[in-house]
Automatic annotation (TrEMBL):
Transmembrane segments: none
PANTHER family on file: FAD-DEPENDENT OXIDOREDUCTASE 2 FAD BINDING DOMAIN-CONTAINING PROTEIN (PTHR43400:SF7), FUMARATE REDUCTASE (PTHR43400)
Record keyword Cell division present: no
Record protein name field: Tricarballylate dehydrogenase
Keyword Oxidoreductase: yes
Biological classification of the source: Bacteria, Bacillati, Actinomycetota, Actinomycetes, Pseudonocardiales
Named cofactor requirement(s): FAD
Keyword terms of this UniProt record: FAD, Flavoprotein, Oxidoreductase
Molecular function terms, GO-annotated: steroid dehydrogenase activity, acting on the CH-CH group of donors
Gene3D superfamilies noted in UniProt: FAD/NAD(P)-binding domain (3.50.50.60), Succinate dehydrogenase/fumarate reductase flavoprotein, catalytic domain (3.90.700.10)
Organism in which the protein naturally occurs: Kibdelosporangium phytohabitans
Domain FAD-dependent oxidoreductase 2 FAD-binding stretches: 69-409
């Protein structure tokens, strides 16, 4: 609408009080920045010391470093040219968002490698501002309006079918932003494998892959690794899914401080290199591996030094399922971990010091699926390798961006066209 479109509508499967999708549960966006003045501008501060502290010794986060991080953790079957273009446009996208009214605040208690600034009010704030701006510009939103099918008319327009007063809707340009297929049990089992049929979702249950499959049915190309997904370690009390409005609860369930301790399974064995990289670059690898462990559960264990230095988020200690144990044997017994194996594991791992120990049980929480549509750097959907006239896609519905791990803060950034 900023570029001159006169009639724009959003149709959303969720009811109005549950608007905002997974985006409403987020915290931060990863973007390139070239100096601390850029961070200061986003924070609207002249406090140079605060900004230096946030930057934690970094003078910039260059496109090359960003691309290196992305490819190192996600590697494999990805569209490097598309990723490089997203990264190259990230600073411009952030500036455009700022000028359109989005706001940032300092990140509290950053872990090494974290983006120094976060969205003001997190994803909830992001989406409240987005809906506000959209409606102010004259956009219309239809809730409780799930798209069930898409057809192409003889005039080359898109006819969108679904349930609710918005349908059928005919339009010249259609932007698909309906997420992955993680909310669809059958598609999960078919593409990710049987263990993923019964898995908890970190996000909303509405993203079932219906517009994704409808686009493929009218000729859109598929891209990416359909057998892989983003999944992370979560507190064992994670419910079956989360809803918009539960951002704080959702953040409190994240269990990403494991590089400060060790992670074991019910048999008392380590199954993952906790210190391979920054936690925000390895958390997906760990989330996926938890699902392969006996009873699909794992335990993060920390020693006295970590507890005394207060290096863990408050939520680790507030989790009712966490156990403070006087010895490794004590913790293992209370959580039904193989005592002998765990004692052996800890002995072999020089990183674990003296008691008391904090034991934190964790499960796998599925965030979103990686397989999706083939997209161009300008967010056009490709069909037969060429842009499909008037069809665009953004967000998790786009495939080819991740294969293995996931660099935190990139999901919100996916395929933003060149900003004016
Ligand atoms: C708990 C959590 C924390 C996260 N934290 C971060 C973070 O800090 N930074 C980051 O970059 N990424 C984060 N992510 C990932 C991020 O949320 C996604 O990459 C991003 O939000 C994707 O946006 P999207 O528009 O594709 O999907 P969504 O924001 O989920 O929007 C999809 C919308 O489509 C609607 N929809 C689905 N099907 C239909 C249909 N058939 N008809 C009509 N509407 C439909 C849904 O109701 C929803 O409103 C997080 C995800 C979760 C779950």
């Amino acid at each position: 609408m900023q570029a001159g479109a006169t009639a724009v509508a959003v149709v959303d499967a969720a009811p109005g009080q549950l608007r905002g999708g997974n985006s409403s549960l987020t915290k931060s966006m990863r973007f390139s920045w070239r100096d601390s003045a850029q961070l200061a501008r986003l924070l609207r501060t002249s406090d140079a010391r605060l900004v230096e502290e946030l930057a934690a010794g970094r003078s910039e986060y260059a496109n090359e470093q960003y691309l290196d991080d992305w490819l190192r953790v996600s590697g494999g079957e990805v569209d490097t040219a598309l990723i490089a273009s997203i990264i190259g446009r990230s600073a411009g996208a952030i500036t455009w968002m700022y000028e359109s009214g989005q706001r940032w605040e300092p990140r509290r208690n950053p872990l090494p490698g974290d983006v120094p600034v976060v969205l003001e009010g997190g994803g909830q704030g992001l989406q409240d501002r987005n809906f506000g701006q959209f409606e102010q510009l004259g956009g219309k939103v239809f809730h409780d309006s799930a798209v069930t099918d898409i057809e192409v008319t003889v005039d080359g327009l898109y006819r969108v079918k679904g349930s609710g007063p918005a349908f059928p809707a005919t339009c010249a340009a259609l932007v698909l932003a309906s997420g992955g297929f993680q909310g669809n049990e059958r598609m999960r089992e078919r593409h990710l494998g049987e263990p993923w049929r019964n898995v908890k979702l970190r996000g909303v249950p509405f993203n079932k892959g219906v517009p994704l499959m409808a686009a493929i049915a009218i000729g859109a190309d598929q891209a990416g690794n359909w057998a892989k997904c983003h999944a992370t370690p979560q507190g064992i009390l994670l419910p079956d899914h989360m809803l918009p409005g539960q951002m704080r609860e959702s953040h409190a369930l994240a269990r990403y401080a494991y590089p400060r301790g060790i992670v074991v399974n019910r048999k008392g064995h380590r199954f993952f290199d906790e210190a391979a990289d920054h936690g925000n670059l390895t958390y997906v690898t760990l989330g996926q591996k938890i699902l392969e462990q006996p009873e699909k559960v794992a335990f993060q264990i920390f020693d006295k030094a970590v507890l005394d230095a207060r290096l863990l988020p408050e939520s680790y200690l507030e989790d009712p399922a966490s156990v403070v144990a006087a010895s490794i044997e004590d913790g293992a017994r209370r959580l039904f971990i193989d005592v002998g194996n765990l004692v052996e594991t800890v002995r072999a791992h020089p990183g674990v010091g003296t008691p008391p120990y904090l034991f934190v049980p964790v499960v796998c929480g599925l965030t979103f699926t990686y397989g999706g549509l083939s997209g161009s750097p300008n967010a056009e959907v490709l069909g037969g390798g060429r842009p499909m006239n008037g069809l665009y896609a953004t967000g998790e519905i786009v495939g080819g961006l991740y294969d293995q791990g996931y660099p935190a803060g990139t999901g919100l950034l996916l395929t933003t066209p060149e900003m004016p």
